[in-house]
Amino acid sequence: MVPVPWLGLLLGCLGLLLSPPAAAAEFSPSLDSDFTFTLPAGRRECFYQPMRKEASLELEYQVLDGAGLDVDFHLLSPKGETLVFDERKSDGVHTVETEDGDYMFCFDNTFSTISEKVIFFELILDNMGDDGQDQEDWKKYVTGTDLLDMKLEDILESINSVKARLSKSVQIQTLLRAFEARDRNIQESNFDRVNFWSMVNLGVMVVVSAVQVYMLKSLFEDKRKSRT
């Protein structure tokens, strides 16, 4: 069994949800995406993510199923430099400050000759600048609204706060689903093992019982031959 820190994870989730939201001017838009795929034995799969300068790339991966629950992970910069290398780990979280170019990350299962791996990973891209212009467009409509009880700036700040909390909730739910999937696979594997060895033990008990009955029966047999 692979222990999962449910208590620590839940406490961390509550801390994220209860933490005070950042101000509207400090809120940085983020793009989240996740993917689950099967990596065959002896194979290596690579993915590319274009990034901007002074942005942030956060990548989290987990091995959900497969013998050993381990995989090699590589993260390379646009210049081909190795930024992260994890050797035969079941999960990992890495954050890097990026520059312009395509970042490559690979999952390597070439060390395994039989077992395929089911791998989940999530990408969180911060400061990509896609929503920065939207906030500037909102600010154009603020002029001349001094007579309103609630300014458009206040509305924008509230929207950003809700968006930030929703993004955190989605990220937490995605992580919980990944943990649940890995635990389910481990439990199903243990269930199959218990059933297999139970049948083996049952077969051994039947054979031993038959041998004992035969030996006891042979002790009470009259082996003297009757004279004719």
From TrEMBL:
Membrane topology value: Single-pass type I membrane protein
Gene Ontology CC annotations of this record: endoplasmic reticulum membrane; endoplasmic reticulum-Golgi intermediate compartment membrane; Golgi apparatus
TM annotation in the entry: 196-216
Principal location listed in the UniProt entry: endoplasmic reticulum
InterPro entries: Emp24-like, GOLD_dom, GOLD_dom_sf
Keyword Signal included in the entry's annotation: yes
Signal sequence interval, chain numbering: 1-24
Compartments (UniProt record): Endoplasmic reticulum membrane; Endoplasmic reticulum-Golgi intermediate compartment membrane; Golgi apparatus, cis-Golgi network membrane; Membrane
Entry keyword annotation includes Nucleus: no
PROSITE patterns per record: GOLD
SMART domains: EMP24_GP25L (SM01190)
Highest taxon of the lineage: Eukaryota
Domain GOLD: 44-125
Entry keywords, A to Z: Endoplasmic reticulum, Membrane, Signal, Transmembrane, Transmembrane helix
Family: Belongs to the EMP24/GP25L family.
Protein's UniProt name: TMED5 protein
Natural source organism: Stercorarius parasiticus
Protein encoded by which gene: Tmed5
